[in-house]
Q: What sequence folds into this?
C-alpha cells in the first residue's frame, strides 16, 4: 500500500530542467508498466467467475466499481491483457519505452476487430513513429484497408444508434441530449462551428453558450450551407481492396461507400499529393451537378423519388443512378432526387434503385446471405 509521502515527493525545486523532463518520462514509463501488469491480471480475472461470485454483472462492472475506472478504461485493460500473446514485439517495445500503453490499446482493439488479418509488425512501426492520438487514426485506416465491409458495418450500426432527446422543463427551458454517428456528427459540427466563433474581442460568451446560440441561429435559417472537407485517394473512391479510409473534418476516417455518397452531389476540388503528402497541384472547385441541371431536376422530380417518399427537393440530393466515378453521366436521365435517408440506403445500405420502362422508380433490397449452401450428393 502506498503512503502519502510516496505520492507527494519532496520538493523538486532544486532540479534542472533536463532532470525534470527525465523524471516525468521515467514516471510515465513506470505507470505504463503498472497498467500493463494490471491488464494481464484483469484479463485473467475476466476469465474466472470471481466477478460473478462478488455479485457484479460483468468483469468490467467489477473493475469499474472496485478499481475506480470508467467502463471504457476497464474494457481497454481487459482487451490489452487478452491480446498480449498476439503482439509480443509491441509488449517488448513498451517495456523498452519505445511506445506507451495507449499505443498497445489501439493495437489490441485493431487485433480484435480484424482477427487473422492483423499484422503486428506494420502497426508497430507506425506506433513508434506517431503519438497515441495519431496512431489511433492510423489504426482506423488500417482496419478499413484490411476489412472494409466490417468497418462499414460498424459505421452503419452507429447510424442506427442515432438518438436525440428533447424535453421541456417547467420554466419552458428545453433540454437537448443526443448521440450522432461520425458522419452525421461531422455534418452537424461543420454547420455549427462557423456560427459559434467569437464575434469580436467583446464576446465573452463561453464556448457552450456560443454553440447554443449557433444552434438557435442555424435552426432559424441563419448561416450558409454546411461544407464538409473530405480527403480521399482515388483507390478509396473506387472502393479498391486494401485502400485506406477517407479523412473527414470533425470525424474519424469514413468508408469508401460513404465517400461515394458524399461525392454524388457536391463541390469537388482536385488536390494532388505526392508520396510525401506534399501538395503539388490544386484544381478549381466545380459542382458535379451544375445549377441549371439541378433546377431542371427539381422541376422534374419535385421531391425524393423513392417510392412512397415525399421529402421536398430542398431536403434531397441529386443521386447518380450510375455513379460518375464508374462512368455515369451527369445528364438528367441519370439523375434522381433522393432524401438523405434513402440516399444513404442506396450507397451504404446496398439497396438498388432503377428506373422502369414506364419511368417509375423500382427499389431492390440488398441480398441477404444466410450461409454457405449445403453440399449435395457426390
A:
Amino acid at each position: 500500500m502506498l503512503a502519502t509521502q510516496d505520492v507527494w515527493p519532496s520538493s523538486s525545486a532544486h532540479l534542472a530542467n533536463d532532470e525534470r523532463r527525465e523524471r516525468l518520462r521515467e514516471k510515465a514509463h513506470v505507470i505504463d508498466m503498472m497498467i500493463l501488469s494490471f491488464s494481464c491480471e484483469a484479463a485473467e480475472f475476466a476469465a474466472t467467475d470471481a466477478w460473478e461470485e462478488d455479485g457484479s454483472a460483468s468483469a468490467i462492472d467489477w473493475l469499474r466499481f472496485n478499481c475506480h475506472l470508467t467502463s471504457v478504461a476497464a474494457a481497454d485493460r481487459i482487451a490489452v491483457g487478452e491480446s498480449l500473446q498476439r503482439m509480443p514485439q509491441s509488449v517488448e517495445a513498451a517495456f523498452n519505452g519505445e511506445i506507451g500503453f495507449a499505443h498497445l490499446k489501439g493495437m489490441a482493439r485493431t487485433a480484435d476487430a480484424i482477427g487473422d488479418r492483423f499484422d503486428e509488425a506494420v502497426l508497430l512501426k507506425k506506433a513508434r513513429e506517431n503519438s497515441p492520438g495519431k496512431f489511433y487514426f492510423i489504426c482506423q485506416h488500417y482496419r478499413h484497408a484490411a476489412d472494409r465491409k466490417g468497418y462499414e458495418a460498424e459505421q452503419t450500426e452507429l447510424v442506427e444508434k442515432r438518438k436525440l432527446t428533447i424535453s421541456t422543463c417547467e420554466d419552458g427551458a428545453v433540454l437537448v441530449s443526443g448521440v450522432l454517428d461520425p458522419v452525421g456528427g461531422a455534418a452537424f459540427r461543420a454547420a455549427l462551428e462557423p456560427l459559434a466563433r467569437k464575434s469580436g474581442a467583446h464576446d465573452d460568451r463561453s464556448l457552450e453558450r456560443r454553440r447554443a446560440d449557433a444552434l438557435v441561429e442555424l435552426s432559424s435559417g441563419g448561416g450558409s450551407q454546411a461544407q464538409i472537407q473530405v480527403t480521399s485517394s482515388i483507390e478509396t473512391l473506387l472502393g479498391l481492396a486494401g485502400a485506406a479510409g477517407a479523412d473527414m473534418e470533425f470525424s474519424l476516417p469514413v468508408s469508401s461507400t460513404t465517400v461515394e455518397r458524399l461525392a454524388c452531389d457536391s463541390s469537388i476540388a482536385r488536390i494532388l499529393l505526392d508520396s510525401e503528402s506534399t501538395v503539388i497541384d490544386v484544381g478549381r472547385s466545380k459542382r458535379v451537378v451544375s445549377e441549371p441541371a439541378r433546377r431542371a431536376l427539381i422541376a422534374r422530380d419535385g421531391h425524393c423519388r423513392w417510392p412512397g417518399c415525399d421529402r421536398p427537393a430542398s431536403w434531397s440530393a441529386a443521386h447518380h443512378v450510375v455513379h460518375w466515378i464508374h462512368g455515369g453521366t451527369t445528364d438528367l436521365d441519370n439523375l434522381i432526387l433522393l432524401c438523405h435517408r434513402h440516399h444513404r440506403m442506396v450507397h451504404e445500405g446496398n439497396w438498388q434503385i432503377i428506373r422502369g420502362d414506364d419511368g417509375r422508380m423500382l427499389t431492390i433490397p440488398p441480398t441477404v446471405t444466410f450461409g454457405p449452401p449445403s453440399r449435395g450428393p457426390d
Residues 17-46 form the longest helix (30 residues).
